């Protein structure tokens, strides 16, 4: 089985936010929930860089380790998913997640944030694949249809790569060699404890 | 090996070498760039350098990488907070060890103590005469704090240990249903608990200031070790320790608890602060639970005559003489009545 990962090539990302829009539309993500976002670092300075970030589907995922009700599971493809039926909205996964991925419908008023929502790698949730119940809670399940996440598919500059970790790392490494710079697969070290990274 | 694979390997090696060089060069290049007043941030080609440089920026106080985001949520601007991994480790391992050792260790000590020492009896036997020890307000404050504390402890421990202890027994659906209720209870009972701690502070602080009798009491092991009955006022040194742990620990746990209840609203306005609050809340909770277990033991099973102080509010005169001799003198001796606080009546003493 492939080990699915995301990789954002910061030298290509132009902060067009197409990935964000595509994600929102594909899964009908409600207002206030941002499964994917584009962060610009060093804004307006030399070395400015934009990076599209969502759940990285970490190896030894921090969110899963701290969830008091143990509602996360990792699929055979290495995708980190969770059950909204089991989540109690405690917010712990947001404290542990290095990438700010978990989102909540409400701000913690008396700790009642509602069920956590995050990027599913377009792979749905524990319900049967592509059922209305699954769609309502987690959005569409493209992976079950043999498709990759919509964000990466939509990326006009192909900055955002999704797919088998080894293959996207190769693509990226080839780009780096060809253009002579870019050693930053942002977040890879923290997410995958892996050094294709920066 | 195919030529394609060979090429990939060469690429990978070149890549690794390049990255290594960047890491080694990082501190040197950053400092010279800064020294020359050149653009304060490293050039685009040096991602690793850029990463390290950004981590030294004021927003990245704890090693976060913070940028700009078009979403109206300042938290979304943090691209990476690598210390999430540290929090993961702290919660998964450090906190659980501290909690397990403190609580199970205390249970072991109590059991051992019971086996060795047995129930501490009133040496002279019950006298059948009672003196008033705690009035209604005092008992209300005590039981308000105690009852909410027990529920808070159980529901709090459910957050820390439930997934290991209870979840395998009752299954995920039942565990989530119970945990939702536990969470609601934990959140709302925080308020009466805080009120109880404030009342306890106001009612008893003047009786809990350390003084010289405490040293003697502690030196004689409080009568727990050995069978001496060192003199004590209304509260002995052991009880003073419980008092101060409740008040100071209660304050710490209330502040961090409310931070957790209203996340990012006050004091802890970033993820790092929330991580810290979670860890402090948990560890102080475990230590308090351990200490209160000992307190519960000695107030009930462990000592004959102790419970009625908080039950009916009255204690047997012989019990009082053995454990709080100076306080009995104070209550029984009318010449010193002037120094009595309103709560300590001599009612029923003769
Ligand atoms: C003012 C009082 C308190 C407030 C406002 C408060 C609030 C909270 C909140 C919001 C949580 C996070 C979990 C959740 O959302 O349900 C929590 C967890 C916890 N609380 Fe409290 N709490 C209070 C008092 C206590 C007391 C007295 C104890 C111990 C006896 C305690 C022990 C714990 C423990 C052990 C956890 C889990 C910590 C962890 O493993 O991360 N709390 N509390
Ligand atoms: S990015 Fe965050 S939410 Fe996603 S797997 Fe990692 S820790 Fe969990
Ligand atoms: S918010 Fe939900 S998913 Fe996240 S740690 Fe709490 S219970 Fe688990």
List how many beta strands of chain B DSSP finds.
5
Strand content of chain A: 5-15%
- Secondary-structure element pattern of chain A, one letter each: EHEEHEEHHHEHH
Task: Return the string of H and E elements of chain B.
Answer: HHEEEHEHHHHHHEHH
Radius of gyration of chain B: 29 Å
Shape of chain B: elongated
Fraction of helical residues of chain B: 55-70%
Average residue pLDDT of chain B: 85
**Unreliable spans of chain B:** 10-45, 346-350
The number of distinct structural domains of chain A comes to 1
The CATH topology of chain A is: Alpha-Beta Plaits
Q: In this structure, how is the largest beta sheet of chain B organized?
A: 2 strands, antiparallel
Q: Can you name the CATH architecture of chain A?
A: 2-Layer Sandwich
What can be said about this structure in brief?
The complex is a heterodimer of chains A (198) and B (350). With 198 residues, chain A is α+β, with helices and mostly antiparallel strands.
Task: Walk me through the structure.
- The complex is a heterodimer of chains A (198) and B (350).
- Chain A has helices at residues 18-27, 62-66, 92-96, 132-138, 150-154, 165-179, 188-192; strands at 4-8, 37-41, 49-53, 72-74, 80-82, 160-164.
- By secondary structure, chain A is of the alpha+beta class.
- Chain A has one domain: Alpha-Beta Plaits (2-Layer Sandwich), CATH 3.30.70.
- In chain A, the strands form three sheets. Chain A has a two-stranded antiparallel ribbon with strand order 1-6.
- In chain A, strand 2 and strand 3 form a beta hairpin.
- The two termini of chain A are 26 Å apart.
- In chain B, 63% of the residues lie in helices and 4% in strands.
- Chain B is elongated, with a radius of gyration of 29 Å.
- In chain B, helix 4 (136-165) packs antiparallel against helix 6, helix 4 (136-165) packs across helix 9 (271-299) and helix 8 runs antiparallel to helix 9 (271-299).
- Chain B is mainly alpha-helical and 350 residues long.
- Chain B has a domain at 136-331: Fumarate Reductase Cytochrome B subunit (Up-down Bundle), CATH 1.20.950.20.
- The longest helix of chain B has 34 residues, at 84-117.
- At the A-B interface, strand 2, strand 3, helix 2, helix 3 and helix 6 of A face helix 1, helix 2, strand 1, strand 2 and strand 3 of B.
- Residues 55-58, 61-63, 80, 97, 99, 101-102, 118, 191 of chain A line the site of one iron/sulfur cluster (SF4).
